[in-house]
Amino acid sequence: MDTRGVLAEVGWEGLEALSGQIETMLRQSATTHGMGRALRALRREIELFRAHQAGREDVTTPIAARRVQIGGGARLLPGFVNIDIMPPADVIYDVREGLPIVDGETEFIFAEHFLEHIDYPTSVKKVVAECYRILKQNGQLVLGVPDAGMVIDAYVDSDPGIRERMMRDWYANRDDQAHFNTYLDLVNYLFRDQDDSDRYTPHLWAYDLDKLVSLCAEAGFRKVEPWPHDPTIANPDRAWGSVYTVAYK
Ligand SMILES: C[S@@+](CC[C@H](N)C(=O)[O-])C[C@H]1O[C@@H](n2cnc3c(N)ncnc32)[C@H](O)[C@@H]1O
Questions:
Q1: pLDDT at residue 68 is higher than 90
Q2: What is the pLDDT of residues 8-43, one digit of tens each?
Q3: Same domain, 141 and 73
Q4: Which of 114, 119, 243 to mutate to test the pocket of ligand 1 (most atoms within 8 A of CB)?
Q5: What pLDDT, on the 0 to 100 scale, is given for residue 56?
Q6: Are 166 and 227 in a shared domain?
Q7: I need a surface site. Which of 28, 85, 147, 242 has the fewest CB within 10 A?
Q8: How far does the centroid of ligand 1 lie from the alpha carbon of residue 131, in Å?
């Protein structure tokens, strides 16, 4: 279906009206906390939908790309086609819908602290399969995520050092400090983060080394191994507390 077909099918007027109703309800004191959560989630999904439809209009044919970054946010990598659902990416696209890239020509894909923000299994497995599709033979996919294994080990070992470092490196600037009460709260924040505030985008799934290896192997990658954090590509702030793998097609 072309973009015009999509626009006609969704009915932009209906979507505008729905957005207006959501804003009105969110302003009303009678709107309950639970309803507010659901409305904010729908508002967010409508924003992503709008951004994706606008982005699709800019990509009339699949792009040939040697290097691709997915979900880089403001960290644009030079020499890469940077794809994200939000500006300032080169390509604005909801990658849960696939990658607008040609088959078998990409040499290197990088995605850091992105996978945990999309739904598992449907979207996660689709994105990894799309990465496999666009890579050439021997092409590499590097995935980096918060290391749930580290956080669980520290819980079992009652390791105060990890707890202190998580609070210092990850959560020091957050406005919800009062809710980090026990170590299990930190485990929960890594697994799902909180979604009562628009400031934070929830985590939807947690990963460790085994899970990244399994995901890539299932998609057909012939070899998957740990990737040593390379600050010339990766966010230096992610060096601690993340797990990275490189998968070879
Ligand atoms: C936590 S940020 C990570 C940014 C950067 N990789 C880093 O490590 O600093 C997650 C990024 O994934 C992007 N993202 C989330 N869902 C997406 C989707 N469905 N399609 C494309 N990008 C998405 C967000 O817009 C955001 O830029």
A1: yes
A2: 666 788 899 999 999 999 999 999 999 999 999 999
A3: yes
A4: 114
A5: 92
A6: no
A7: 28
A8: 16
Range of the domain at 93: 67-147+207-248
Distances (CA, A) of 99 to 88, 96, 243: 17, 8, 24
- Supply the CATH number for residue 105's domain: 3.40.50.150
Q: Does the model's pTM come out above 0.90?
A: yes
Please indicate whether residue 9 or residue 202 has the higher confidence score (pLDDT): 202
DSSP-derived secondary structure letter, 104: T
Does 111 lie in the same domain as 170?
Answer: no
Flag whether 198 is in a domain: no
**Distance of alpha carbon 130 from alpha carbon 219, whole angstroms:** 9
Ligand 1 site, residue 114, Cβ cutoff 6 A: yes
Backbone angles phi, psi at 91, to 5 degrees: -125, 120
The reply to whether ligand 1 has any atom less than 6 angstroms from the CB of 71 is yes
Tokens of 14: 């209906």
Categorize the per-residue pLDDT at 226 as very low, low, confident or very high, splitting at 50, 70 and 90.
very high
Q: 3-class DSSP state for residue 112?
A: strand
Binding site membership of 126 for ligand 1 (Cβ less than 6 Å): no
Ligand 1 contact, 73 CB (< 6 A): yes
Closest approach atom of ligand 1 to CA 96: 19
